[in-house]
Amino acid sequence: MVKALVPLLAVAAAAMAMIALRQREKKKHAYPFKRTPIKRLPLDQLPRLKNDLLVRAYLGQKTERVPVWCMRQAGRHLPEFRALREAGYDFFTMCQVPELAVEVSLQPLRRYATDAVIIFCDILVVPQAMGMEVKMVSGVGPVLPQPLRTPEDLARLNKKPDIEATLGYLMDALNLARQEINGQVPLIGFSGAPFTLFTYMVEGGGSRTKDKVKSFLYKYPQAAHEALQAITDVCVEYLIAQYQAGAQALQIFESVGAEYLTQDHFYEFAFPYLAQIAERVREAVPATVPLVGFSKGTQYAYEKLSYTKYDCLSLDWQSDPTTVREQVGGRVSLQGNLDSAAIYAAPEVIREEVSKMLKKFGTQGYVANLGHGCAPDFSPENVDTFIKSVQQISFEMNSV
Ligand SMILES: Cc1c2[nH]c(c1CCC(=O)O)Cc1[nH]c(c(CCC(=O)O)c1C)Cc1[nH]c(c(CCC(=O)O)c1C)Cc1[nH]c(c(C)c1CCC(=O)O)C2
C-alpha cells in the first residue's frame, strides 16, 4: 500500500518542484543565458560516500555484491520526468538549470535501489560550447542546423571555449547533486567521445548510414584530425572540471558513428582520441576516480582498449562477456550488458537473464548495466526488477 504511493508521491514532488521553478525559469533560459550561480562547496566539504560499491567495482576492488545502474536511467520512462517535460521545459533548459537537472538526476534514486546517479545532461552540450547550435526536436532527436561539411566550416568552431562560461551550469548541477545525494551513492559525470561528437557535428543529427562523416574522413583526413583534436581538448578540460565540481566517476560515450567505421579508420580517427582523453584526465584526476569507456559496436577493440588508462570498459549487448574477460585479462573491470529489450519481458524472464549475465561476468570487477540504455517505453516496474535481481542474485552468489 505504502509502496504503491511512492510513484504518486514522486509525481507530486516533481509537480511541486516544477511550479516553484516555473516562474523563475520560463523564458530567460534560452541558450546561452545568464544563470544564477549556486554556492559550490569544495570537494573536501561535500558529503562522504556511504555506498561505494560502484567505485570499488570499477577499480577492481572486492565487493560483497554487484553494483548496478542503468544508462539513461533518468528520462522519459519515468512519469515524474515526463511531468516536468510536459510542463513546458525544453530539454536543454532542463540541463542548464541546475535545480532542474539535479531534480531529474535524483528521480531514479528515489524510485530505484540504483547504486549510482548519473548527472542529467547530454553529450551534445560540447558542440554547443564550441559554438554550434543544437536543438532537441521531439520525435526527431538532436538537430544541428549548420553542420560541418568542409574544412572551411571548421573556422566556425570555437576551439578553445571557456569551460566555466559555457558549461559551468553542469558544474553547478554536479556540486548541487553531491550535496543532495548526501553520500547515498556515487555521482557519475560524463562526456561524449570525440568521434561520436564529430559524427553529430558533421551529420547534423541522427543519420542512418553516417555517409557524411565517413566521406569527410576520406576527403579531408587532416581537417578531421584537427577537429577531433580540438574536441578532445575540450572534453579533457570538461571532464577534469566535472571531477573538480564533484563527479566521483567519469564515463566517456563512444556511442554513435564508430560502429560504422572500418577498423583502420577506427584506429586512426576514434581510438587515439578515446585513449588520449583517458590518459590526460588520469594525469589530473586521482586514481580513486574511475574512468569508464563505452565504445559501442567495436568489439574488436576491447583488448587494445584494456591497455589504455580506462579502469573499466562498458560492453554493448552484442559483446560476449566471457570472451571479453579473456581478452582484457585483469587489466580492467567490465560493465554491462543486458540487452535492453529484455526489460520488456516478464519479471521471471528478466531474473533469468540477469542470472545468466552474472554467471558470465562473475561478481567481481563488474558493474551491471544495460547494453545500451533505458528506452522511453520501459516500465519502471521492470527496471526495478532488473536492479533488484542483480543485487539479490549476486549477493547470493557471493555467499556460497
Ligand atoms: C548518443 C547520445 C546522446 N546523448 C547521450 C548519448 C550517449 C549515450 C547513448 O548512447 O545513448 C548521453 C546522454 N543523454 C542523456 C543522458 C543523461 C543521463 C542518463 O540518465 O543516462 C546521457 C548520459 C539524457 C537525454 N538525452 C536525450 C533525452 C531525451 C530528451 C527528451 O526528449 O526528453 C534524454 C533524457 C536526447 C538525446 N540525446 C542524444 C540522442 C540520440 C537523444 C535522443 C533523441 C530521442 O530519442 O528523442 C544524443
TrEMBL record:
Subcellular location: Cytoplasm, Cytosol
Main location: cytoplasm
One CC-aspect GO term: cytosol
GO biological process per UniProt: protoporphyrinogen IX biosynthetic process
InterPro entries on file: UROD/MetE-like_sf, Uroporphyrinogen_deCO2ase_HemE, Uroporphyrinogen_deCOase
Annotated pathway: Porphyrin-containing compound metabolism; protoporphyrin-IX biosynthesis; coproporphyrinogen-III from 5-aminolevulinate: step 4/4
Catalytic reactions of this protein: uroporphyrinogen I + 4 H(+) = coproporphyrinogen I + 4 CO2; uroporphyrinogen III + 4 H(+) = coproporphyrinogen III + 4 CO2
Alphabetical keyword list: Cytoplasm, Decarboxylase, Lyase, Porphyrin biosynthesis
Keyword Transcription: no
E.C. code: 4.1.1.37
PROSITE patterns: UROD_1 (PS00906), UROD_2 (PS00907)
Protein's UniProt keywords contain Calcium: no
UniProt superkingdom: Eukaryota
GO molecular function: uroporphyrinogen decarboxylase activity
EC class name: lyase
Domain Uroporphyrinogen decarboxylase (URO-D): 67-76, 188-204
UniProt xrefs under CDD domains: URO-D
Subunit structure: Homodimer.
Entries under PANTHER family matching the protein: METHYLTETRAHYDROFOLATE:HOMOCYSTEINE METHYLTRANSFERASE RELATED (PTHR21091), UROPORPHYRINOGEN DECARBOXYLASE (PTHR21091:SF169)
Job description of the protein: Catalyzes the sequential decarboxylation of the four acetate side chains of uroporphyrinogen to form coproporphyrinogen and participates in the fifth step in the heme biosynthetic pathway. Isomer I or isomer III of uroporphyrinogen may serve as substrate, but only coproporphyrinogen III can ultimately be converted to heme. In vitro also decarboxylates pentacarboxylate porphyrinogen I.
Family: Belongs to the uroporphyrinogen decarboxylase family.
NCBIfam families named among the record's database cross-references: hemE
Protein name per UniProt: Uroporphyrinogen decarboxylase
Organism: Thraustotheca clavata
